[in-house]
Amino acid sequence: MKVALLFGSFNPIHEGHLAILRYLAEHRLADELRLVVSPQSPFKQGQGLLDNARERLEAARAAVAQTGLPVVVSDVEFELPEPRYTIDTLRHLQRTEPDNTFVLVMGGDNITALENWHLADELLHEFEVWVYPRPGTDARPYVDALNARPGTKGITLFADAPQNAISSTEIRARRILHYDVIIIGGGITGVGVARDCALRGLKAVLVERDDLTVGASGRNHGLLHSGARYAMGDAESARECIGENRILKQIAPHCIDPCDGLFITLPEDDRDYQRQFIAACRAAGIDAEALDPAEARQIEPSVNPDLVGAVLVPDAAVDPFRLVFANAMDAAARGAEILSYHEVRGLRKDGRRIVGIDVWDVRGKQEKHLEAPVVVNAAGTWAGQVAAMAGARITMYPDKGTLLVFGERVNRLVLNRCRPSSDADILVPSGVTTILGTTSQRLEPKEIPGARPTPEEVDLLMSEGTKLAPKLLQTPILRAYSGIRPLIALDGAEEGGRNISRSFVLFDHETRDDVPGFITIAGGKMMTYRLMAERTVDLVCRKLGREVACTTAETPLPEAIARPERFGGAVICECENVREDEIRYAIDQLGARTLLDLRRRTRVGMGSCQGQLCALRAAQMLPDPDVHSFIGERWKGIYPVAWGEAMREAQLAQWMYNKSENASQ
Amino acid sequence: MSMNFDTLIIGGGHSGLQQGIALQRNGQQCLIISAGESSRPLRDPEWSQAIERHRFEDLGGVWLDDRVIKGVLKSANEGDLLLHVFTENSGEKFFVADQFILATGSFYSGGLLADPVHIWEPVFGLDVDYEGKHADWVRPDFFAQQPFMTFGVRVDAQGRALRQGRPVLNLQAVGSVVASR
């Protein structure tokens, strides 16, 4: 029996496919027609509209049944091992049905790429091929050329078959995708909201124009506050902090180093402040224990030996990258879609109501249209711009903070100054490094893209910060970096830099600005993300008329970035012991494409060489390394700290990557 | 140290070895005392320190793995004279030669050091040509010409290193430790 096979992902099946089958049936060209649905096409990765292969199979069966054509829809490829090349399936069928002859049916556009197929020569020798025309492609020259090759069994072009210009790609493009909730922004707030939505059974999609963590989430101090710092000035914030501090230590222990913290009083500080400080902490529910200087020096040898007082609090260090990726991966595992490199082009409206977003898929180079009853603006520093697109006005106060990364872990506990908050008074141990921060500088919106650490900020950090731990003066500095705090005005609040509350705000724009379907969650701190997400999704549920309780406080987060010990292969980054397999994992499972992506998901480039030596090695493994951006980004961190060890790194970078310098040597 | 050396070369990187090989060929007895990391492989992956050192030693040159940490100078009429040098591991013993060559490299190799406001040459405290503070030594644009890449020890027309404005008469400085402004 002659069996004609039409392969495809049928994502979705459409009239064009059916027209081919109709033609073949009418002309009695084969005894049997079979549609072979591929669970995944080796060429087209991750473009799912009907990503569930079973759904596509059922859809194809339903469509074929409606036509009444004698077509069998086959799921033979579902049982075959990956990768499922056409030749493997053909040979499998030939083996298992030796009495049948199999013919491969394909479109004129596919024949032009047939040479690239796996074992193309063998395929042409063993199987007959039928080609139906596709508009825009003249298949005749390709068919002739392949037929002329010795050994080709035979390719037939059905020049008079119906040409149908529809393609699944186009259908996907025109299709509007529907969700319960759309989230704009791929920082900790956005992924936290996405995960909460997924846990509550809401169909959520998150869009982020760049990679996850490129905003404030990837440029903060890595401090899991005890809240003590806010006890004196902002009791509400302090209470929120300690509550979330305890919850996060429970649900995300793999992201947290529970190192505790000290608030130290130096001779020049107000001695009475400590007493009030302890009282305020206790009133907010924060454990605060006074230590005498000798005890403090014992548990923290690097502390300034001149200290006259110390208070022990449950501060901790947190890895913001792990935390964001853990939330994102858990959200995705529970059904949310996390679309990075998707830029919001505009908001879809029905009158003043927001009904969805139009996005540009940067990598796939196509437009997508997403609709949902609620759109959540979690765009952080860019929340004002997104709100403006919706026709709502919010007032943001972007505030730049600069931090220094030292090449050793100088302190065991977080060190703080026991005095009203000021610059450079927090020292956080972070893995094998120590981070000193921070500064505060209000920025105009137009200054945001160019924001970077300056030598003046670095000088300020060094002069003040070294009072916490004098050993810092002898410790090499790896780099400086800046982050932008997305501070927001509480309606009716006054300006003031540090004095704007760091409490978050949740705006329901329906009641506030007569823009239904749109809410903004902004402000706050990284460590209160879970609470911010809870409040946000509570509001989303109310709007959707769903009564589902939040469970994020009790549900543990999975480990997203596996431990280095589990990976093998050649060592790519010596400073941080990152091996080849871990980079492969980051590329295949975590979506890394460029060196900067890699830096956010592994520790490549974070160690003492800051990526100098390993960058080129890692670049060879990446589809699109973008070394230029990586070098530029690293230079921003080295340039303001150009002395000591950093000078060595600066010179190394210049010799390796700046051709004009090399020419003059 | 009982051997007599015509020339003592401080630093066994590309420049130091080049000098050593040339002088040995000319019949001089050289000692290279070397400690740091050569920066040459970064700019020229084909260059091998091991091979160059082999050539030097084949010609009769002597190599010592150690770090020169200071020298003793004496005032003379037209400048200073370097009498002998001490190393990290030689204790109270010192090394004497007629001529000395400083080839300790630039920042990468530790021939030049920097703190936020000063740049200096750590072995002899030679005069370093630089300006300003750390913010002045680099440009924010990575691909621009970077001032610090041209900083280094000042030398006179004969290549002799300057110290407090005066030449050290028997000390030459060569390679990336020397200013190229």
Number of strands of chain B: 12
CATH topology of the largest domain in chain A: Rossmann fold
User: Which H/E pattern describes the elements of chain B?
Assistant: EHEHHEEEEEEEHEEE
Could you say which structural class the secondary elements and strand pairing of chain B correspond to?
alpha/beta
Low-confidence sequence ranges of chain B: none
Largest sheet geometry of chain A? 9 strands, mixed
Distance, first to last CA of chain B: 38 Å
How large is the share of residues in beta strands of chain A? Answer: 15-25%
What's the rounded overall pLDDT mean of chain A?
A: 87
Helical fraction of chain B: 10-25%
SSE class of chain A: alpha/beta
Percent of residues in beta strands of chain B: 25-35%
Oligomeric state: heterodimer
Tell me the span between the first and last alpha carbons of chain A: 75 Å
Q: Tell me the total number of β-strands of chain A.
A: 30
Alpha carbon gyration radius of chain A:
30 Å
**Low-confidence runs of at least 5 consecutive residues of chain A:** 41-50, 493-501
What is the CATH level 1 assignment of the largest domain in chain A?
Alpha Beta
- Report the total helices of chain B: 4
